[in-house]
Each structure stands twice: as structure tokens, then as C-alpha cells.
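Figure 2 data, in text form.
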Amino acid sequence: MSEEVVGRAGFHAKHTKAVSERSAILHEAMRELDQQSIAYWAARNPNIVVADEPLNMAMVNDSSGGFARCTDRRQVLDYGESRVGLLSRKLREDAPDKNGKMTGGTVTTSLLVSHLPKSMCEEIEDFYPVLDSTTGEPVVDRNTGEPMRRSRWIAADRDEAVKYFEAVVDYLAENVIPGGRDAVLGYDIQFSESTPHIQIVADTFAADPRKPGRLRVDTSRAWFSHRDVRDEQGKVKSGPAKMREYHEGLKQHLIERGYDISPDFDEERHLAGMGKEEFGRSMDAERVAVAEREYVETKLAAKISVAEKDSKAAWEYKQAAKAELAAAEKERAAATAELEEAVEIKRRAKADGHREGYENGRLEAQVQLAEMTRLAEGERAEAARQADAARVARRALEETEERLEAELARVVEEPPDFKRFLDTPRKDGKTMRDVYNRAMAPVWASRASRAALLDEVRQEAKHSGAYDLEL
């Protein structure tokens, strides 16, 4: 369960041009109005819990400043068409520009989506499987071998949730949607998916100040850049700047009404052009990336631990070989000194002319020479054996390091399918690469730290003669 649940408020806005697209929007948003729509969307959206579809609430503008329960999507479409008939100018259709791109059409419709803060929800852990965005199959956590799962959040109090969403509609109608409450064609409060949310369908029309009783398209004034809308410095205000102001105003509006929400702003979601389904997929991708990070980190730690142990063992073995060689050299030096002493005895005996002494000295020298020669040969053979053993240990260590480096390269390599998913552009032109890079940043930092540690062990071994010991 989440250690700390933070209530966040905001909304996502998506705009379309053709009035005819409203039918498709409402087919999903108000699917609970007929069983065929429920079945159609449940087969395409794994977040939908069919048993909870009756809890959803479809509302339509009652033409009197309020909203009434909607029983047929046609009611919303008819109300919207009545407002199209009040436009003072005809709607423009898209036309190809010099590059063949269709552009220039009038933006007529806005879909605004806002979720219930998690501080007003109850969590049902491990409710949904995490699905692969390419295959649709459950993703298996390589750390546990079990399918990954995620939570579902349901309203702790549905009546309070409805009041919250009504407060959101009030703010957006009074401060954001250009035509006010009249421009809100309808909305649907949904309790049947992974998080309770509201989908608001509005047009982009407002009163035409030059023609009383008529409407004009105010899309740019409300949502994008327009020469008539400027900031305090007199500069044309951008669309993202307007969205920040709208979100700040919404949060203040809700806080003043006693809702426990955080004042921060989630730019990653609300300014990146991601709708509820795309954002959900990005969260699943981030969960997979985090799990992969933990797996790679665990494997890396195990491999480095083995390498450190092997390196330490090789270093200790070679240090022992070096000590034994030094002892052998010392004994050989002592034998050489004794041999030289015997030669000196022989020389003195010969110089004194004492045959017996000379003969004894000669015999003693020969005996000692033979013994010292035997000892020296033994020490030389032992030194050669130690040198061979050290070379074998060094080669074994080098082979271990080569296997480790190859294994690490394989572990951290991105699978082709996952790489394609990360680099596939979203609707806003961006990719999931940024989300993945943020999730994997701790892995790369840990990996660099451990690589540095392994290099330090190697350098210490080299400095101590573990790698370059000449026997």
C-alpha cells in the first residue's frame, strides 16, 4: 500500500476540429447509456470494470444554466448543434498547406478530463495486471517471476466525489471555457475505471461582442496564443502559460472549498498532451522500468560481488606466492654464503700446504657444494612452480573479468521491442525515453559507482603486484 497518499487536482485538455467527432467522444464518455457501447469499450480498455458501469453519471446542459441527467447521447449532440447554428461565421474546413499537411480548420470542441484526488479514494491493491504496450500480455517481474500488478482507486464516498466534480465544472465553466456554462454541452462522471474521473465536453464558442445574440469561435483566446491576450509585460500569452494559470486557479478554488489537495502542478501530464489512456500506459511503462532497474541492480550487485571475491582471492594467493618466493631467495642467498665459506676453507687448506687439511677442506667443500646445489635446485623448482601457479591464477581472474563484462553488457542491453516502445513518438511528438531515463537514472548512477569500485579493486591489486607480479 502507498505509504503516503497525496491529493492532487488538475485537468487535461484535448481539442478537436470537426463537429462530427463529438459523436465518437460521447460514445466512449457516456458508454453506460447502452449495453453495446459498454461491451465495445470494455473489450478495448482493460481498466473498465463492467459491473460498476451503472455507477457512472451522464449529464446534459438543460439550456437554463444547469445540467440534467442524460438518457441519450443525442441530447448532448442536439444541444451542441443548436449552438453551432448561432455562429456569426461559418466553420472552416482543413485544407492542405504547401507541404500537403491538412491545416487551418476551426477547432470546435474541447474534451476536459479531471481525476478525483487520491486523498478522496480507497486503494484496492494488485487489482489490475500491468500489460505490455506492444503485445497486450501481462508483464512478468524478473525479480520475482510473478506477473506485475497495479492498484485500482475507488471513491471513498461517491456523493462527496460528485460534489468535487461539480466544483471542478463550476471553476472551468466560469474561468476557462470561453463560452461559460452555456458552452458545456455535457459531462460524465465515471466510477468504473482505475480512478474516478469526469469527462467534460464543451464547445469553443463565446458571445460575439459585435453581433448580439450570435457566437464566435474563441479557441485561441482561451487555449492557445492570441494577439488580444497578453501578460503583465505586454507579451502575447502562450498556451502553456494559460494552462498554468488555469491549474493554479483550479487548485485555489478547490482549497478554498476545503478540499485537501497539493498545490503543485504536474506538468509532465497536463502539458505533455497525454490523455487518460496514454498517461496510464506511461505509468505502466514507468512501473516496468522501475522493476527492470531493480532487477539489473540486483544482478549487477551479485556479479560485482563475485568479481570482488575472485579478485581478492587472486590477490591473496599471489601475495602468498610472492612471500614464498622471497623466502626461497633468502634461503638461496644463505646457501650461496655457506658455499663461499666452504670454498674459502678449501683455499686456506691449500695455501697452508697441509695435505690433510687440504684434503679435508676439499672433501668438506665438495659435500657442502653438493648439498647447496641440491637445495638451490629445489628452491629454483619451487619458485618456478609458484610462478606457474600465479600465472594460472592471473589468467583465471582475467577470464572471470571477461565473462563478467560480457554478462553485464547483456544484462543492461535494451531489448529491441522495448527500445522501439521508448522511441515511438506520442501524439505530442515526444517519446517515453524521457520517462524511462528518469526511472533508470538511479540504476546508471549505481552502476557507475560499482564499476568505479571494481576498478579500484583492480588498481589496488595491480599496485600490490596481484596482476603484474614477475616470478
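Caption note: The two ends are 61 Å apart (CA to CA).
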